[in-house]
Design a protein that fits this description.
By secondary structure, this protein is of the alpha/beta class. It is built from 19 helices and 15 strands. The chain folds into 3 domains: about 5-135, Orthogonal Bundle (Fumarate Reductase Iron-sulfur Protein, Chain B, domain 2); about 150-240 and about 405-480, FAD/NAD(P)-binding domain; about 250-400, FAD/NAD(P)-binding domain (3-Layer(bba) Sandwich), CATH 3.50.50. Helix 4 (about 65-75) runs antiparallel to helix 5 (about 75-85), helix 6 (about 90-95) runs antiparallel to helix 8 and helix 9 runs parallel beside helix 19 (about 450-480). Bound molecules: flavin-adenine dinucleotide and iron/sulfur cluster (2 copies). One iron/sulfur cluster (SF4) binds near residues 47, 49, 54 and 108. One iron/sulfur cluster (SF4) binds near residues 65 and 120. This is Dihydropyrimidine dehydrogenase subunit A. GO terms for molecular function: 4 iron, 4 sulfur cluster binding; metal ion binding; oxidoreductase activity.
């Protein structure tokens, strides 16, 4: 093994090829090519097989990274895939969109020693894409069928991971989702240039082929009540994500041409599926030929600026109130956006939307500087007194999301939420204040990451299994 691994001294870190900025800015296909088999092997062989693998600590799923890197370096790809998929329900999706620089790769030992991290995400993607291509990823065939059932509200990463884990144990699983397709933000939030949609669709089809029922266009709280689901199923999981967009509080924010990020991204993703989208088709949510300003510095803002470029915007500017080093979005995505022609105005906070007869024409921004650190140690931005204007026909608000008022929506005041509206759970079981009702993903954590949604979904599924197993035992004893 030693000969095959530890190659970081001889083999430099490389990523899969990235398509040129000019070419990729004209379409919504992913920007990274797949690793060739030889390159994947060589990159995996750079791992030093640490006795204490920090990469694993940095992964929310505690993936057995050194093991599947070694197997990939040895060309044992089916085993690598089996190890990788034993802890992750969608490794090829995480490999594409986890912010690895802040998770597994950021703390890789050889990154810390200055040799450049092992490209863990790209290898993870390669292993599972290869498994799909080889036909190894098959529908789940549970060892035994159980009569008990679970109802899952939300077909995003948290709900899908839980559904898969429960089905593996033989439970009857129904997933209810307000949208017409599964995937949650994987489908309607994240654009195709980060995650092509057929990658998500094949996962959902596999779950359907595994016997999981999906009820789309079914908003719980409207079409069906939470109480009805509790009566129908033995356990219920709330995995509804967070969708209340934080608003822009400045003069002119109600002007025509000012849009919420998710409306904009959902319309674009729907067009990718070939759907009719009235607000896009009449031009309202289409950035073509417009000067676009996006306000925010997270992943959502990065997805908006890069979508606008692809729609043929005349100019795209991102305003963020802190500096580059302190933005929440991935540095990799900022670099991609810059290459594609996005202009960043760091340390800039919107003061007013400038309009003519109610139609947005620009943004007046205050120039900021970083002040004293706050209680969390983060430097707060403060105004310098200088302002400047940016012309805009379209302004996109990407300021983050809060939970919706679930106790009201579900007509269930006994469902406890915290002061931000996130559902309260007992973290050892993911159970909410309602017995038999569990919660996972963004609705528990606030806006987070796909990989944390998967982790929560898996944890909740395990607790639901334990509870249903105990119930089944208790009913058996009572019947004897
Ligand atoms: P969601 O994915 O939001 O899924 C919730 C599902 O519940 C939806 O399908 C919704 O229709 C359904 N639902 C809601 N209410 C109801 C109801 N009442 N009844 C029935 N169904 C309901 N994370 C990353 O790791 N990497 C990224 O690159 C990244 N990029 C992002 C880009 C954007 C634009 C956004 C908005 C987020 C991004 N994230 C990213 C975050 C990530 O998408 C989320 O953390 C993750 O999807 C949360 O999963 P979830 O299952 O909790 O919720
Ligand atoms: Fe890294 Fe994400 Fe994969 Fe974990 S799931 S190993 S954090 S890319
Ligand atoms: Fe390999 Fe880096 Fe993980 Fe160490 S920390 S086991 S070098 S991937």
């Amino acid at each position: 093994m030693a000969e095959r691994m530890l190659q970081f001294i001889h083999v430099p870190r490389t990523m899969p090829d990235k398509r040129g900025a000019k070419q990729r800015a004209t379409d919504f296909a992913e920007i990274y090519d797949a690793f060739a088999a030889d390159a994947a092997k060589a990159q995996a062989s750079r791992c030093s097989q640490c006795g204490v693998p920090f990469c694993q600590q940095g992964c929310p799923l505690q993936n057995n990274i050194p093991d599947w890197l070694r197997l990939a370096a040895e060309g044992r790809l089916e085993e690598a895939w089996r190890v990788s998929s034993s802890t992750n329900n969608m490794p090829e999706i995480c490999g594409r969109i986890c912010p690895q620089d802040r998770l597994c790769e950021g703390i890789c030992t050889i990154e810390q020693s200055g040799h450049g991290t092992v490209t863990i995400g790209s290898i993870e993607k390669y292993i599972t894409d290869n498994a799909w291509a080889e036909g190894w990823v098959e529908p789940i065939k549970p060892m035994r069928e159980r009569k008990q059932s679970a109802g899952i509200i939300g077909a995003g990463p948290a709900g899908l991971a839980a559904a898969e884990q429960l089905r593996r144990k033989g439970y009857q699983v129904t997933v209810y989702d307000a949208y017409d397709r599964g995937g949650g933000l994987l489908t309607y939030g994240i654009p195709g240039f980060k995650l092509e949609k057929d990658i998500v669709e094949r996962r959902i089809k596999r779950l359907q082929d595994s016997g999981i029922k999906f009820k789309f266009n079914t908003r719980v709280g409207k079409k069906v009540t939470l109480q009805k689901l509790r009566d129908t199923h033995d356990t219920v999981l709330i995995a509804t994500g967070v969708y209340a967009a934080k608003d822009l509080k400045c003069p002119g924010s109600g002007a025509d041409g000012v849009h919420a990020a998710l409306d904009y991204l959902t319309a674009s993703n729907r067009k990718g599926f070939g759907d009719a989208v009235a607000e896009f088709d009449v031009g309202t949510l289409d950035a073509n030929d417009k000067r676009v300003v996006v306000i925010g510095g997270g992943d959502t803002a990065m997805d908006c600026v890069r979508t606008a470029i692809r729609q043929g915007a005349k100019a795209v500017t991102c305003l963020y109130r802190r500096d580059r080093a302190n933005m929440p979005g991935s540095q990799r995505e900022v670099q991609n956006a810059e290459e594609e022609g996005v202009k960043f105005e760091w340390l800039a906070s919107p003061e007013a939307i400038l309009d003519t007869k109610g139609k947005a024409k620009g943004v007046r921004a205050a120039r900021m500087k970083l002040g004293e650190p706050d209680a969390s140690g983060r430097q707060s931005p403060v105004k310098t007194g200088e302002t400047f204007n940016v012309k805009a026909d379209m302004v996109i608000k990407a300021l983050g999301f809060d939970p919706e008022d679930l106790p009201a929506l579900f007509d269930e005041p006994a469902l406890s939420v915290n002061r931000w509206g996130a559902v309260k759970v007992d973290y050892s079981t993911m159970e909410t204040s309602l017995p038999g009702v569990y919660a996972a993903g963004d609705i528990v954590r606030g806006a987070s990451l796909v990989v944390w949604g998967i982790k929560d979904g898996r944890d909740a599924a395990e607790a639901m299994h334990q509870a249903m197993k105990q119930d089944a035992r208790a009913s058996k004893v009572a019947a004897e």
